[in-house]
Design goal:
This protein is α/β, with parallel strands linked by helices. It has 2 domains: 36-262, 2-enoyl-CoA Hydratase, Chain A, domain 1 (Alpha-Beta Complex); 287-445 and 497-517, Alpha-Beta Complex (2-enoyl-CoA Hydratase, Chain A, domain 1). It has 21 helices and 16 strands. It has helices spanning 4-7, 16-37, 42-50, 56-63, 123-139, 158-174, 194-198, 215-222, 228-232, 234-240, 251-262, 303-310, 355-370, 388-392, 395-408, 423-428, 452-459, 461-466, 470-485, 489-493, 506-517, and strands at 70-72, 95-102, 105-112, 143-149, 180-189, 201-205, 209-211, 246-248, 317-319, 327-334, 337-344, 375-381, 413-422, 438-441, 446-448, 499-500. The strands form 2 sheets. Strands 1, 2, 3, 4, 5, 6, 7 and 8 form an 8-stranded mixed beta sheet that branches. Strands 9, 10, 11, 12, 13, 14, 15 and 16 form an 8-stranded mixed beta sheet that branches. Strand 4, helix 6 (158-174) and strand 5 (180-189) form a beta-alpha-beta unit. Helix 5 (123-139) packs parallel to helix 6 (158-174), helix 13 packs parallel to helix 15 and helix 17 (452-459) packs across helix 19 (470-485). The longest helix has 22 residues, at 16-37. The protein is elongated, with a radius of gyration of 28 Å. Bound molecules: hexanoyl-coenzyme A.
Length: 534
């Protein structure tokens, strides 16, 4: 039996007189649809394949559940007749838009078609994407954009610039309402970069590139010589610039990671993220956790080992792993429920906070808060990184973003101090006073206003100077200070830590705590919007 896609639907009684005319109408529609499916034509499709790239429609077929795609705007064309564009009209105008399902969940999608005028962004593209964005916002369903475009369609002039504005305003209106994921699968140049930059997540695949001004313009203006990949490839944007959140070796892997990411996100901000049937025992104890923290307190360990041991097996999806690796953020599942994890990484820069780590952490907290994903924070941080460069770079306002994000977030928040929680880092990393619901500490926790040696230098300068043996006196005073502060018990005494727990118990404690907090209701004062430090 023919499917709707093959026949264009439409059956019914027709009289012999009208049968011929009906047939012609159907024939026209079918021909137009077949042309639309070919995008820029067989030669361009061949070129796309020769570059190891899929076409827009092939990508959508890989992304969506089989047979779930329903397209809108397949026949739309531009009406521009300048610069020879009147001879270059392609049904669909270089973009495929519509709705489909991923693992049975409804999503809105658009895919730029590089085979049509380099996927360049036109007035018609904007109309088609805007329509999908509007419907997605109204229906409360996530939107996934597959980007492959040379930027504003140059021949359309200011029309294509205005068109970007239509998309940007909807990106912003959708922000925090429905999840928005951008997959970058080819060039994403000029104005094309800003719509992805306004979405929640950017996934870059293969040799895709993102840049505002390309290598040629840069060379003409500044004389700098750089290749497209060195300027804006996935490695650059996932490690240096922090523009992209995830990278994948090729398109298939990129599509797979986007689907996985979606699995942690709700359909919209009024829904909870999807729970799955957990295969991992909720109260499993991992003995290895009890010896994870090295005896020598200055020895590093990898915080990701704690995360993978505590949460559901194979559930950790690290976000921005290579950018500011002194902090770790990502999604996990706990007894099947999605959770956002924020942590210091003692294996890199001793886990000190800096400008990039602050941006990374703050953004992730706000993402989880927007989409009702509880937050668990692991603290092992000697403080903010000292240095002229950091101060000049605005570490004050960047660090303030973490504080702002934690204070503003109303989702369940739990913190666990594993080792150092020193000074500003103690306060900033989800301290109890900043509306953290439950604060745990491992017995190895050290919660103090500053390290022992610098504290003794400040507090006992005169006493040490007067001492018969200043070095011996310093050692004594340091030991005294450590005895007092380098354990979690002083903080527990004054109620800043709710419970000191064995590391191996952490999973079970978190499962039970989040079970209680799942129905937490907390509201911020009504306001137009806050002024988060930028
Ligand atoms: C119209 C475009 C186009 C564009 C590419 N094409 N970009 N047509 N407008 N922006 C066309 C090419 O002319 C070519 O057509 C076809 O698409 C394929 O492009 P190629 O150059 O052959 O492909 P490739 O070698 O892979 O290079 C891809 C590319 C390059 C890196 C994207 O085309 C490029 O640099 N394009 C221009 C990028 C750019 O400067 N964009 C900024 C636009 S201004 P033919 O028929 O010859 O094969 C902008 C400002 C908006 O976006 C700001 C808003 C905030």
């Amino acid at each position: 039996m023919a499917t709707e896609g093959e026949t264009g639907a439409l059956t019914g009684e027709t009289s012999p007189a009208t049968a011929g005319r009906t047939h012609e109408h159907l024939q026209t529609l079918r021909e137009m649809r077949s042309r639309a499916v070919l995008g820029g034509g067989p030669k361009r499709i061949e070129q796309q394949h020769a570059r190891g790239k899929y076409t827009a429609r092939e990508r959508l077929a890989l992304l969506l559940d089989e047979g779930s795609f329903q397209e809108f705007g397949a026949l739309a064309t531009h009406q521009v007749s300048e610069f020879g564009l009147e001879r270059q009209r392609f049904p669909g105008d270089g973009i495929v838009t519509g709705f489909g399902k991923i693992s049975g969940r409804r999503v809105a999608v658009f895919a730029q078609d590089f085979t049509v005028l380099g996927g360049s962004f036109s007035e018609v593209q904007a109309q088609k994407i805007s329509r999908i964005q509007d419907l997605a916002i109204e229906s409360g369903i996530p939107i996934i954009g597959l980007n492959d475009s040379g930027g504003a369609r140059i021949q359309e002039g200011v029309r294509s610039l205005a068109a970007y504005g239509e998309i940007f305003v909807r990106n912003v209106m959708a922000s925090g309402v429905i999840p928005q994921i951008s997959l970058i699968l080819g060039p994403c140049a000029g104005g094309a970069v800003y719509s992805p930059a306004l979405t929640d997540f950017i996934v870059m695949a293969g040799d895709s590139c993102m840049f505002l001004t390309g290598p040629d313009v840069i060379q003409a203006v500044t004389g700098e010589q750089v290749t497209a990949l060195a300027l804006g490839g996935a490695e650059v944007h996932t490690s240096r610039s922090g523009v992209a959140h995830l990278a994948a070796v090729d398109e298939l892997a990129g599509i797979a990671v986007a689907k996985r990411l979606l699995g942690y996100l709700p359909q919209n901000n009024n829904e909870d993220p999807p729970q799955i049937q957990a295969e991992d025992e909720p109260h499993r104890m991992d003995e290895a956790l009890n010896t994870l923290i090295p005896n020598d307190e200055n020895q590093p360990y990898d915080m990701r080992d704690a995360i993978t041991a505590i949460f559901d097996n194979d559930s950790f999806l690290e976000i921005q792993g290579a950018f500011a690796p002194n902090a770790v953020v990502g999604f996990v599942r706990l007894d099947g429920y999605p959770v956002g994890v924020v942590a210091n990484q003692p294996a890199y820069m001793s886990g000190a906070l800096n400008i990039d780590a602050s941006d990374k952490i703050a953004r992730f907290i706000r993402t989880c808060d927007a989409f009702n994903i509880p937050l668990v924070t692991f603290v092992d941080c000697p403080g903010f990184l000292p240095g002229v460069e950091q101060e000049y770079g605005g570490v004050i306002r960047h660090g303030a973003k973490i504080i702002y994000a934690y204070c503003e977030a109303t989702v369940p928040k739990i913190s666990i101090v594993t080792r150092k929680a020193m000074g500003g880092a103690y306060v900033a990393m989800g301290s109890k006073q900043m509306r953290t619901d439950l604060a745990f500490a491992w017995p190895t926790a050290q919660i103090a206003v500053m390290g022992a040696e610098p504290a003794v230098r400040v507090l006992y300068r005169d006493e040490v100077a007067r001492a018969e043996d200043p070095q011996a006196r310093t050692r004594e005073l340091v030991a005294e200070y450590r005895e007092k502060f380098f354990s979690p018990y002083r903080a527990a005494d004054v109620g800043q830590i709710d419970e000191v727990i064995e590391p191996r118990e952490t999973r079970s404690r978190l499962v039970r705590a989040l079970e209680v907090l799942r129905t937490k209701v907390q509201q911020n004062p009504p306001k137009k919007h806050g002024l988060s430090p930028t």
